């Protein structure tokens, strides 16, 4: 009986050890993999935590890594990207990028080739500031197209306008709120800014204009409207 009991006990110990060893091995492997990833990861969270970087700083990251905010791709290699930090840019600063890069707000394409784009920063512009861009550029908020040729656009910044200021644009441009068309030809529109008007103010507009909130048509002829601001 005693020998049988010892055999049973030893058998139970072997079974217990065989069950516990793989579990510990699995835990060790998982822990090792996590440590390896933490040491070698260049994911967007790690890149975005870099402190003290200034405009123009560069980093090399894996191509599988998401591009962090305010970074652009400047070089594409077989297995990695070179990215550049463009946060803190000043009006007029430029950067050359790969054509596939995401681009932050307030940048326009000023040169486009088959291999790269040159972008220019237009944040911080004042009313009336102009820039020539490639035609494939996006037009940032509060910018309008004043001239379009077969090769380029001229853009003007109209943010910060005062009541009564005018701008002549291409007919297909997007126009911000509180502007009305005062003249329309086959080639262009003339717009007037009517934000900040006092109650009772009147303006004469082309009949194709949009009517901004707070304005009503008080006179309509075959050629024009008279709009009055009611608030």
Q: What is the straight-line distance between the termini? A: 104 Å
Category from helices, strands and their pairing: alpha+beta
What is the element string, with H for helices and E for strands? HHEEEEEEEEEEEEEEE
* Major beta sheet, strand line-up: 1-3-2
How many E strands? 15
What is the number of helical segments per DSSP (H or I, 4+ residues)?
A: 2
Rg calc: 32 Å
Mean pLDDT: 84
Helix content: 10-25%
The biggest beta sheet, please?
A: 3 strands, antiparallel
Task: Give the amount of beta strand, in percent.
Answer: 35-45%
Poorly predicted ranges = 2-45
- Shape assignment: elongated
Keywords for this entry:
231 residues; alpha+beta; 3-stranded antiparallel sheet; 2 helices; 15 strands; 19% helix; disordered N terminus
Could you explain the architecture of this structure?
The chain has 231 residues and is an alpha+beta fold. The protein has 2 helices and 15 strands. It has helices at 2-40, 44-48; strands at residues 58-62, 71-76, 80-85, 94-98, 107-112, 116-121, 130-134, 143-148, 152-157, 166-170, 179-184, 188-193, 202-206, 215-220, 224-229. The strands form 5 sheets. It has a 3-stranded antiparallel beta sheet with strand order 1-3-2, with no helix packed on it. Strands 4-6-5 form a 3-stranded antiparallel beta sheet, with no helix packed on it. Strands 7-9-8 form a 3-stranded antiparallel beta sheet, with no helix packed on it. Strand 8 and strand 9 form a beta hairpin. The longest helix is centred in the first third of the chain and has 39 residues, at 2-40. It is elongated and about 65 Å long. The relative contact order is 0.07.
């Amino acid at each position: 009986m005693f020998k049988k009991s010892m055999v049973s006990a030893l058998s139970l110990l072997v079974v217990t050890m065989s069950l516990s060893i793989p579990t510990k091995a699995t835990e060790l492997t998982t822990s090792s993999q996590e440590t390896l990833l933490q040491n070698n990861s260049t994911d967007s969270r790690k890149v975005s935590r870099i402190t003290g970087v200034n405009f123009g700083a560069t980093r090399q990251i894996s191509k599988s890594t998401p591009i962090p905010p305010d970074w652009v791709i400047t070089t594409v290699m077989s297995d990695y990207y070179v990215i550049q930090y463009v946060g803190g840019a000043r009006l007029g600063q430029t950067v050359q990028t790969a054509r596939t890069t995401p681009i932050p707000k307030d940048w326009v394409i000023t040169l486009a080739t088959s291999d790269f784009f040159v972008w220019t920063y237009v944040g911080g512009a004042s009313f009336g500031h102009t820039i020539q861009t490639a035609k494939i550029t996006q037009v940032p908020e509060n910018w309008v197209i004043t001239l379009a040729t077969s090769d380029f656009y001229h853009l003007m910044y109209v943010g910060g306008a005062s009541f009564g200021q005018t701008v002549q644009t291409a007919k297909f441009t997007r126009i911000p709120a509180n502007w009305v068309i005062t003249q329309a030809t086959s080639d262009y529109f003339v717009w007037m800014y009517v934000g900040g008007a006092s109650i009772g103010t009147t303006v004469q507009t082309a009949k194709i204009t949009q009517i901004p909130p707070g304005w009503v048509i008080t006179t309509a002829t075959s050629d024009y409207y008279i709009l009055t601001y009611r608030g």
